[in-house]
Amino acid sequence: VVESFNRLAPEILGETIARSAKAIYVRNNILTIECASSLIMQEVRYREQEIIKEINKQAGMPVMEKIRYVS
User: Fold this and answer.
1) pLDDT value at position 1?
2) What integer pLDDT is reported at residue 71 of this predicted model?
3) Hey, how many other C-beta atoms are within 10 angstroms of the C-beta on 16?
4) For the chain, does the N or the C end have fewer beta carbons within 10 angstroms?
């Protein structure tokens, strides 16, 4: 899941934002993403459902339910 996010991020978020948002781990179906700033966090949060949908689609099953943000 972490690798999927880091691979999909430039496509979903754009190169600039993807460089500032990195998935760091998954626990209990919650992906934790480290964001460089609150602005980046807000942009990723805006696209949260799209990110979850794409990662679950690539996995072929629900592997992620939520995203947690840290900075």
Assistant:
1) 87
2) 87
3) 10
4) C
Q: Which residues pair with 33 in a beta bridge?
A: 23, 69
Under 8 Å between Cβ of 1 and 35: no
Question: Strands, DSSP E only, in 1-65?
Answer: 21-27, 30-35
Long-range contacts of the stretch 47-54 (C-beta < 8 A, 24+): 47/12, 47/13, 50/12, 51/5, 51/8, 51/12, 54/4, 54/8, 54/12
- In this structure, the strands spanning 21-27 and 66-70 are unpaired
Mean pLDDT, rounded, of the chain? 94
- The neighbour count for residue 3, using CB atoms within 10 Å, is 8
pLDDT over 90 (residue 27): yes
* Angstrom distance (rounded) from CA 71 to CA 65: 20
